[in-house]
Amino acid sequence: MSQYPNSPLGLSPHLWDVLACPCEKHAAVEADEEASEIVCSKCSRRFPVRDGIPVMLMDQAAGDLNESGSTSA
Ligand SMILES: [Zn+2]
């Protein structure tokens, strides 16, 4: 189903060039192929990929968050 079967998570290689974590470090991100998630190399936040589109939103991130989550949706 992916347009880019040879690229991590099936995302465009160009997207990987520009993808960065929305955290204050704006750090590079990596693919977690098993989880189908994008992982920040600095803050370890994890971002889902929905319909082939990375959801790089802080409030959608999971992972090493110290702040207690407040949303459930
Ligand atoms: Zn980060």
How would you sum up the major sheet? Answer: 5 strands, antiparallel
Strand content: 15-25%
Compute the separation of the termini in Å.
Answer: 27 Å
Small molecules held by this entry = zinc ion
Nearest-integer average pLDDT? 88
Count of helix runs = 1
* Total domains: 1
Name the poorly predicted regions.
Answer: none
* Alpha carbon gyration radius: 12 Å
Shape: globular
At the first level of CATH, the class is Mainly Beta
- In total, the number of strands is 5
What name does the CATH topology carry?
N-terminal domain of TfIIb
Content-based structural category: mainly beta
Order of helices and strands: HEEEEE
Query: Fraction of residues in helices?
Result: under 10%
CATH architecture classification:
Single Sheet
Structural summary, described in words:
The chain has 73 residues and is mainly beta. It has a single domain (8-60), classed as N-terminal domain of TfIIb. It has one helix at residues 13-18, and strands spanning 29-32, 37-40, 45-50, 53-54, 62-63. Strands 1, 2, 3, 4 and 5 form a 5-stranded antiparallel sheet that branches. A hairpin with a 4-residue loop joins β1 and β2 (37-40). The protein is globular, with a radius of gyration of 12 Å. The model has no long low-confidence stretch (mean pLDDT 88). The protein binds zinc ion.
